[in-house]
Design brief:
66% of the residues lie in helices and 1% in strands. The chain is mainly α. The chain has a three-stranded antiparallel sheet with strand order 1-3-2.
């Protein structure tokens, strides 16, 4: 695996975390940048495949320097992993040749389903990196003449996928200019006098920048985790050490669990949100003024969950340190060191205000979301906030373009050939056999969609694979269309903190070394239950008030 780099300072652009790198199930170790809040010794800003201890300053002698040099990481194994490869291909072969094909499904549709299921199995089992495996699936559809070339590559012109790609460049702009770091540091200065206040400061600051930084993983790795790590170290809370529970473990879990609600609050806060709306539209569910409608429907349950999460985790998973009087002073010193807001930061602020304004009101003036993003990126390039090398070096963006377009294209073709409608009708008949009302069917389907995520290591992969099918099941069960589409999308954000591998941000926060694996699973399930209760109870009354059902 390549080493990933993050930056929260004004240094030249460095690659942001790839949102699906956690699919490889390698646990990463993050260290804060030298410009972070900690007044301790500088720490390398690298993400490393194996945990590293907090190093003492290098000694003058050559022997000491040699001893401090870590062993080089072993080269990754070449080619596919044999057992996951056999199992992934076996899934498709079993469906194609052993499972009986229903009479209402054409041979072409059944063959496409078998290739799609094999592709999804590979996303879960990981015989190859996700982009490489998706390309093999695409090749299979063309080589077997299941799909013509133009249909197989049709999703590469999908507006939403390009909007997601551009969102990676926006996130790079926040990190490169230091704007995201500055915003978060101000909240630490204002609210960081206690551990609980510190958590609220970080949570609120993420919610503030979320609509203009459409990547939960980038916000975690580029802004918030380095700050959490350096604050923890300054309080004597070290990773992979009993002192982790002094402060770091609580801050890491609080920020992770709250991030799902920040992403669910705004349409443009996460890549999967944009994809869900596109898939819903393709299924015939059109939402007028999507940005405003999204925020209005999500606002009450998301804000209540955001405010409740730090406090509830403070009670369930309490930190040993309750007061952090040094945090505001550290933040003030850091802001002083950063100096006044730079020209590039002001350009970034103005550009993102323009982009968000166009995302909100663009429909009224005929400007689509992707055109608004293209205008914003063009401004950043023209004024030198970003350069083309920054965009080229954003490997995660181009990788996402490749595998995401393939997955979305396959899912769309499954709808076109009738597989999704066949599956939804089968599920609807099963639900009807139990005489379930639509509210009961809604609860069963939402819970199933949520807990299936234990099998996935990416939110966007989960959405691309299952969103259309589950939306069709909701509609076949009689659930109101807009309620179905939005609830599934909100769910797609909330399950991102279930495990250490369930999303890019989960892998990063776990890799910091502050929370033990049993606690990750326990807290992930507990927070999921709390979120389900808040969204279920508050949402029931709020959505009834808004007329969604």
């Amino acid at each position: 695996m390549e080493r990933l780099r993050l930056a929260v300072s004004h240094r030249p652009a460095l690659p942001l975390p790839t949102p699906h790198n956690h699919l490889r199930r390698r646990h990463l170790q993050l260290q804060p940048s030298p410009s972070s809040l900690s007044l301790s010794r500088p720490i390398s800003p690298h993400l490393c495949p194996t945990p590293r201890r907090h190093l003492h300053p290098l000694l003058a002698s050559a022997s000491a320097a040699q001893a401090a040099t870590p062993d080089p990481a072993p080269a990754p194994a070449a080619g596919a992993k044999l057992l996951p490869l056999i199992l992934s291909v076996g899934v498709g072969l079993a469906v194609q040749f052993l499972a009986p094909r229903p009479a209402e499904v054409t041979p072409q549709a059944w063959q496409l389903l078998s290739i799609f299921l094999s592709t999804i199995a590979g996303l879960v089992l990981g015989p190859l990196p996700v982009g490489a495996w998706a390309f093999l699936g695409l090749t299979a559809t063309v080589a077997t003449r299941t799909l013509p070339f133009t249909a197989a590559f049709g999703a590469f012109t999908n507006e939403v996928i390009w909007l997601i790609v551009i969102s990676f460049f926006f996130a790079r702009g926040f990190v490169k200019t230091g704007l995201g770091d500055r915003v978060a540091t101000y909240f630490v200065k204002w609210l960081g006098g206690s551990t609980l206040g510190l958590s609220y400061g970080l949570t609120i600051s993420e919610a503030c920048i979320a609509p203009a930084m459409p990547s939960t993983t980038a916000r975690a790795g580029g802004v918030f985790l380095p700050i959490v790590k350096s604050l923890s170290l300054s309080a004597g809370s070290k990773p992979n050490d009993p002192s982790a529970k002094k402060l770091g473990a609580y801050l890491v879990q609080s920020q992770l669990q709250a991030s799902g609600n920040s992403s669910a609050l705004f349409l443009t806060a996460a890549a999967q949100n944009l994809l869900c709306m596109k898939l819903a539209e393709e299924a015939g569910v059109k939402i007028a003024s999507p940005w405003i409608s999204w925020f209005k429907v999500a606002s009450l349950p998301a804000i209540i969950s955001l405010l409740a999460t730090p406090y509830l985790l403070y009670k369930i998973f309490p930190p040993e340190i309750k007061d952090t009087p040094e945090a505001p002073a550290l933040a003030a010193k850091k802001l002083e060191k950063m100096g006044p807001v730079t020209k590039n930061e002001w350009v970034m602020v103005a550009t993102m205000l323009l982009a968000v304004t166009l995302w909100i009101f663009g429909d009224a003036i005929g400007v689509s979301s992707v055109v608004a993003a293209m205008i914003g990126l063009s401004i950043l390039l023209l004024l030198g906030v970003l350069n083309w090398d920054d965009c080229l070096n954003e490997k995660s963006a181009w990788d996402t373009l490749a595998w995401f377009a393939i997955l979305v294209g396959m899912a769309g073709q499954l709808t076109n050939v009738g597989i999704v409608s066949w599956m939804s009708n089968c599920v609807a008949k099963v639900l009807q056999s139990f005489s379930l009302s639509w509210p009961a069917a809604f609860g069963v389907l939402q819970a199933s969609y949520f807990f299936i995520h234990y099998l996935f290591a990416s939110q966007t992969a989960h959405v691309g694979a299952l969103y259309s099918a589950f939306l069709a099941m909701h509609l076949a069960a009689g659930v109101p269309a807009i309620l179905s589409a939005l609830a599934l999308t909100y769910n797609s954000n909330l399950f991102g903190a279930l495990t250490h591998y369930s999303s890019g941000q989960s892998a990063l926060y776990y890799g910091a070394g502050y929370v033990d694996l049993p606690d990750v699973f326990k807290l992930g399930f507990t927070a999921a239950a709390i979120n389900a209760l808040i969204w279920g109870v508050v949402g029931t009354f709020w959505w009834k008030f808004l007329g969604l059902y």
